[in-house]
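Sample intake sheet
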Amino acid sequence: MTDVISLTGLVKTFGRGSAATRALDGLDLVVAPGEVHGLLGPNGAGKSTTLRILLSLLRPDAGAVRLFGRDARRDAVALHRRLAYVPGDVALWPDLSGGQVLAMLAKLRGHSGPARRLPELLERFDLDPGKKGRAYSKGNRQKVMLVAAFASEAELLVLDEPTSGLDPLMEAEFRACLAEEKARGRTILLSSHILSEVEAVCDRVSIIRRGRVAESGTLAELRHLTRTSVSAEVERLPAAFGGFPGLHEVRVTDLDGPAGGVRLECSVDTDQLSHLMVALGTEGIRSLTSRPPTLEELFLRHYAA
Protein backbone atom coordinates (compact mmCIF):
# COMPACT_ATOMS: atom_id res chain seq x y z
CA MET A 1 0.00 0.00 0.00
CA THR A 2 1.41 3.38 -1.03
CA ASP A 3 2.04 5.88 1.77
CA VAL A 4 -0.03 9.06 1.55
CA ILE A 5 2.93 11.18 2.71
CA SER A 6 6.61 10.33 2.36
CA LEU A 7 9.23 12.92 3.30
CA THR A 8 12.86 11.83 3.06
CA GLY A 9 15.95 13.76 4.14
CA LEU A 10 14.37 17.22 4.05
CA VAL A 11 16.81 20.09 4.49
CA LYS A 12 15.81 23.75 4.51
CA THR A 13 18.01 26.72 5.42
CA PHE A 14 16.91 30.35 5.62
CA GLY A 15 19.45 33.14 5.18
CA ARG A 16 23.12 32.97 4.27
CA GLY A 17 26.49 32.87 5.91
CA SER A 18 26.72 33.33 9.66
CA ALA A 19 23.09 34.52 9.80
CA ALA A 20 21.75 31.31 8.23
CA THR A 21 19.20 29.26 10.16
CA ARG A 22 18.70 25.59 9.39
CA ALA A 23 14.99 24.97 9.89
CA LEU A 24 15.07 21.34 8.73
CA ASP A 25 18.08 19.09 9.07
CA GLY A 26 17.38 15.76 7.36
CA LEU A 27 13.75 15.28 8.39
CA ASP A 28 12.02 11.98 7.55
CA LEU A 29 8.27 11.43 7.93
CA VAL A 30 5.84 8.76 6.69
CA VAL A 31 2.04 8.86 7.01
CA ALA A 32 0.05 5.78 5.99
CA PRO A 33 -3.45 5.77 4.41
CA GLY A 34 -6.22 6.31 6.96
CA GLU A 35 -3.78 7.39 9.65
CA VAL A 36 -4.18 10.39 11.94
CA HIS A 37 -0.62 11.55 12.52
CA GLY A 38 0.33 14.20 15.06
CA LEU A 39 3.28 16.48 14.38
CA LEU A 40 4.59 17.95 17.63
CA GLY A 41 7.17 20.56 18.49
CA PRO A 42 7.45 24.06 19.95
CA ASN A 43 7.61 27.19 17.83
CA GLY A 44 10.72 27.09 15.67
CA ALA A 45 11.00 23.29 15.65
CA GLY A 46 10.24 23.11 11.91
CA LYS A 47 6.58 22.02 11.84
CA SER A 48 5.22 24.78 9.60
CA THR A 49 8.27 24.66 7.33
CA THR A 50 7.66 20.92 6.87
CA LEU A 51 4.02 21.48 5.93
CA ARG A 52 4.83 24.32 3.52
CA ILE A 53 7.34 22.11 1.73
CA LEU A 54 4.77 19.31 1.64
CA LEU A 55 2.33 21.73 -0.03
CA SER A 56 5.02 23.02 -2.45
CA LEU A 57 4.79 26.50 -0.95
CA LEU A 58 8.51 26.22 -0.19
CA ARG A 59 11.24 24.39 -2.07
CA PRO A 60 13.57 22.23 0.05
CA ASP A 61 17.33 22.56 -0.29
CA ALA A 62 17.57 18.77 -0.31
CA GLY A 63 15.34 15.74 0.13
CA ALA A 64 12.33 14.12 -1.53
CA VAL A 65 8.61 14.86 -1.05
CA ARG A 66 5.96 12.46 -2.27
CA LEU A 67 2.17 12.58 -1.91
CA PHE A 68 0.09 9.56 -2.83
CA GLY A 69 3.24 8.10 -4.39
CA ARG A 70 3.76 11.06 -6.74
CA ASP A 71 6.25 13.91 -6.79
CA ALA A 72 4.64 16.63 -4.66
CA ARG A 73 6.12 19.52 -6.65
CA ARG A 74 5.89 18.23 -10.21
CA ASP A 75 2.29 17.00 -9.75
CA ALA A 76 1.18 19.74 -7.34
CA VAL A 77 -1.94 20.85 -9.26
CA ALA A 78 -3.43 17.36 -9.45
CA LEU A 79 -2.42 16.46 -5.91
CA HIS A 80 -3.87 19.61 -4.35
CA ARG A 81 -7.32 18.55 -5.55
CA ARG A 82 -6.95 15.54 -3.25
CA LEU A 83 -6.11 17.46 -0.09
CA ALA A 84 -7.43 20.26 2.12
CA TYR A 85 -5.18 22.60 4.07
CA VAL A 86 -6.01 24.64 7.17
CA PRO A 87 -3.27 27.09 8.27
CA GLY A 88 -2.92 28.40 11.79
CA ASP A 89 -3.46 32.01 10.77
CA VAL A 90 -6.17 32.37 8.14
CA ALA A 91 -6.42 35.42 5.85
CA LEU A 92 -9.60 35.81 3.80
CA TRP A 93 -10.52 38.08 0.91
CA PRO A 94 -12.07 41.10 2.68
CA ASP A 95 -14.85 41.68 0.13
CA LEU A 96 -15.95 38.06 -0.21
CA SER A 97 -18.48 36.53 2.16
CA GLY A 98 -17.72 33.32 4.01
CA GLY A 99 -20.15 31.48 1.76
CA GLN A 100 -18.41 32.78 -1.37
CA VAL A 101 -15.04 31.65 -0.03
CA LEU A 102 -16.43 28.19 0.69
CA ALA A 103 -17.91 27.94 -2.81
CA MET A 104 -14.67 29.08 -4.43
CA LEU A 105 -12.55 26.58 -2.48
CA ALA A 106 -14.91 23.76 -3.44
CA LYS A 107 -14.70 24.80 -7.11
CA LEU A 108 -10.90 24.82 -6.97
CA ARG A 109 -11.08 21.17 -5.91
CA GLY A 110 -13.32 20.39 -8.85
CA HIS A 111 -16.70 20.37 -7.08
CA SER A 112 -19.17 22.74 -8.71
CA GLY A 113 -22.19 21.99 -6.51
CA PRO A 114 -22.71 22.72 -2.81
CA ALA A 115 -21.11 20.27 -0.39
CA ARG A 116 -23.59 17.83 1.12
CA ARG A 117 -22.38 18.39 4.69
CA LEU A 118 -22.05 22.18 4.46
CA PRO A 119 -25.31 23.18 6.27
CA GLU A 120 -24.57 20.77 9.12
CA LEU A 121 -21.02 22.05 9.56
CA LEU A 122 -22.07 25.71 9.44
CA GLU A 123 -24.48 25.02 12.27
CA ARG A 124 -21.98 22.99 14.31
CA PHE A 125 -19.34 25.69 14.06
CA ASP A 126 -21.89 28.50 14.55
CA LEU A 127 -20.66 30.29 11.43
CA ASP A 128 -22.66 32.94 9.54
CA PRO A 129 -21.66 32.51 5.85
CA GLY A 130 -23.25 35.80 4.85
CA LYS A 131 -20.67 38.03 6.56
CA LYS A 132 -17.79 39.56 4.62
CA GLY A 133 -14.25 38.44 5.32
CA ARG A 134 -13.35 41.82 6.83
CA ALA A 135 -16.08 41.38 9.47
CA TYR A 136 -14.83 38.01 10.73
CA SER A 137 -12.81 37.66 13.91
CA LYS A 138 -9.70 35.47 13.91
CA GLY A 139 -11.72 32.57 15.29
CA ASN A 140 -14.41 32.93 12.61
CA ARG A 141 -11.81 33.07 9.85
CA GLN A 142 -10.46 29.82 11.25
CA LYS A 143 -13.95 28.34 11.20
CA VAL A 144 -14.33 29.12 7.48
CA MET A 145 -11.29 27.04 6.61
CA LEU A 146 -12.24 24.22 8.99
CA VAL A 147 -15.73 24.02 7.49
CA ALA A 148 -14.21 24.03 3.99
CA ALA A 149 -11.86 21.18 4.90
CA PHE A 150 -14.42 18.99 6.65
CA ALA A 151 -17.07 19.62 3.96
CA SER A 152 -14.67 18.65 1.17
CA GLU A 153 -14.13 15.17 -0.21
CA ALA A 154 -10.37 15.52 0.16
CA GLU A 155 -8.50 12.31 0.90
CA LEU A 156 -5.88 14.11 2.99
CA LEU A 157 -6.38 16.87 5.57
CA VAL A 158 -3.28 18.92 6.43
CA LEU A 159 -4.01 20.91 9.59
CA ASP A 160 -1.43 23.37 10.92
CA GLU A 161 -2.40 24.59 14.41
CA PRO A 162 -6.05 24.46 13.26
CA THR A 163 -7.71 25.51 16.53
CA SER A 164 -5.78 28.77 16.84
CA GLY A 165 -8.29 31.45 17.86
CA LEU A 166 -11.15 29.05 18.67
CA ASP A 167 -12.93 29.16 22.00
CA PRO A 168 -13.10 25.96 24.13
CA LEU A 169 -16.58 25.06 22.83
CA MET A 170 -15.42 25.21 19.22
CA GLU A 171 -12.24 23.31 20.09
CA ALA A 172 -14.46 20.50 21.39
CA GLU A 173 -16.50 20.59 18.17
CA PHE A 174 -13.30 20.40 16.14
CA ARG A 175 -12.20 17.31 18.05
CA ALA A 176 -15.57 15.67 17.46
CA CYS A 177 -15.30 16.35 13.72
CA LEU A 178 -11.75 15.02 13.68
CA ALA A 179 -12.89 11.79 15.34
CA GLU A 180 -15.62 11.43 12.73
CA GLU A 181 -13.18 11.93 9.86
CA LYS A 182 -10.87 9.37 11.45
CA ALA A 183 -13.78 6.87 11.55
CA ARG A 184 -14.44 7.57 7.87
CA GLY A 185 -10.86 6.58 7.07
CA ARG A 186 -9.52 9.94 5.95
CA THR A 187 -5.80 10.55 6.32
CA ILE A 188 -4.97 13.50 8.59
CA LEU A 189 -1.69 15.23 9.39
CA LEU A 190 -2.21 17.42 12.45
CA SER A 191 0.45 19.88 13.57
CA SER A 192 -0.29 21.16 17.05
CA HIS A 193 1.20 22.26 20.35
CA ILE A 194 -2.00 21.35 22.22
CA LEU A 195 -0.91 17.95 23.48
CA SER A 196 -4.32 16.85 24.77
CA GLU A 197 -5.71 17.44 21.28
CA VAL A 198 -3.11 15.18 19.70
CA GLU A 199 -3.38 12.55 22.42
CA ALA A 200 -7.16 12.31 21.99
CA VAL A 201 -7.27 11.62 18.25
CA CYS A 202 -3.89 10.62 16.80
CA ASP A 203 -2.85 7.08 15.86
CA ARG A 204 0.82 7.98 15.67
CA VAL A 205 2.93 10.93 16.79
CA SER A 206 6.21 12.41 15.56
CA ILE A 207 8.14 14.77 17.84
CA ILE A 208 10.29 17.27 15.94
CA ARG A 209 13.41 18.63 17.55
CA ARG A 210 15.96 20.89 15.85
CA GLY A 211 14.63 20.15 12.38
CA ARG A 212 14.58 16.35 12.73
CA VAL A 213 12.08 13.76 13.91
CA ALA A 214 13.42 12.86 17.35
CA GLU A 215 10.84 10.14 18.03
CA SER A 216 7.97 8.62 16.07
CA GLY A 217 5.42 5.92 16.83
CA THR A 218 2.13 5.14 18.50
CA LEU A 219 1.61 6.46 22.01
CA ALA A 220 1.93 2.88 23.28
CA GLU A 221 5.29 2.53 21.54
CA LEU A 222 6.56 5.84 22.86
CA ARG A 223 5.35 5.06 26.37
CA HIS A 224 7.25 1.79 26.26
CA LEU A 225 10.45 3.84 26.19
CA THR A 226 9.68 5.72 29.38
CA ARG A 227 8.25 5.28 32.87
CA THR A 228 4.92 4.63 34.56
CA SER A 229 3.85 6.49 37.72
CA VAL A 230 2.81 4.23 40.62
CA SER A 231 1.14 5.11 43.92
CA ALA A 232 0.44 2.28 46.38
CA GLU A 233 -0.49 1.73 50.01
CA VAL A 234 0.94 -1.52 51.43
CA GLU A 235 1.38 -3.07 54.84
CA ARG A 236 5.16 -3.00 54.42
CA LEU A 237 7.78 -2.66 51.71
CA PRO A 238 9.44 -5.76 50.25
CA ALA A 239 12.66 -6.68 52.10
CA ALA A 240 14.82 -6.20 48.99
CA PHE A 241 13.06 -2.99 47.92
CA GLY A 242 16.18 -0.84 48.29
CA GLY A 243 17.88 -2.64 45.41
CA PHE A 244 14.82 -3.03 43.18
CA PRO A 245 15.74 -2.26 39.53
CA GLY A 246 14.12 0.43 37.42
CA LEU A 247 12.72 2.62 40.22
CA HIS A 248 13.02 6.42 40.13
CA GLU A 249 11.81 9.36 42.23
CA VAL A 250 10.89 7.07 45.13
CA ARG A 251 8.96 8.57 48.06
CA VAL A 252 7.94 6.43 51.06
CA THR A 253 5.62 7.82 53.76
CA ASP A 254 4.49 6.10 56.96
CA LEU A 255 0.71 5.98 57.26
CA ASP A 256 -1.03 7.24 60.39
CA GLY A 257 -3.66 5.20 62.20
CA PRO A 258 -3.80 1.90 64.06
CA ALA A 259 -3.37 -0.20 60.89
CA GLY A 260 -0.04 1.44 60.08
CA GLY A 261 1.53 0.66 56.72
CA VAL A 262 3.33 2.82 54.17
CA ARG A 263 2.50 4.79 51.06
CA LEU A 264 4.85 4.32 48.10
CA GLU A 265 5.04 6.83 45.26
CA CYS A 266 7.52 6.28 42.43
CA SER A 267 8.07 6.03 38.70
CA VAL A 268 9.18 2.72 37.25
CA ASP A 269 10.69 1.69 33.92
CA THR A 270 7.92 0.09 31.90
CA ASP A 271 9.73 -3.23 31.49
CA GLN A 272 9.99 -3.51 35.30
CA LEU A 273 6.35 -2.65 36.08
CA SER A 274 5.10 -6.25 36.24
CA HIS A 275 7.96 -7.23 38.57
CA LEU A 276 7.11 -4.36 40.90
CA MET A 277 3.43 -5.41 40.98
CA VAL A 278 4.42 -8.97 41.95
CA ALA A 279 6.77 -7.73 44.69
CA LEU A 280 4.16 -5.41 46.19
CA GLY A 281 1.48 -8.08 45.95
CA THR A 282 3.31 -10.23 48.49
CA GLU A 283 3.25 -7.42 51.05
CA GLY A 284 -0.48 -6.79 51.40
CA ILE A 285 -1.60 -4.13 48.90
CA ARG A 286 -4.40 -1.92 50.24
CA SER A 287 -4.66 0.38 47.22
CA LEU A 288 -2.72 0.84 44.02
CA THR A 289 -2.85 3.28 41.11
CA SER A 290 -0.64 3.17 38.04
CA ARG A 291 -0.70 5.79 35.29
CA PRO A 292 1.12 5.66 31.96
CA PRO A 293 3.06 8.78 31.01
CA THR A 294 1.06 11.48 29.28
CA LEU A 295 2.02 12.82 25.89
CA GLU A 296 3.06 16.03 27.64
CA GLU A 297 5.56 14.13 29.78
CA LEU A 298 6.97 12.36 26.72
CA PHE A 299 7.23 15.67 24.89
CA LEU A 300 8.94 17.48 27.76
CA ARG A 301 11.41 14.64 28.17
CA HIS A 302 12.70 15.35 24.66
CA TYR A 303 12.95 19.09 25.23
CA ALA A 304 14.37 19.01 28.75
CA ALA A 305 17.67 17.54 27.58
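Comment: Residues 227-304 form a domain with the Alpha-Beta Plaits fold (CATH 3.30.70.120). The two ends are 37 Å apart (CA to CA).
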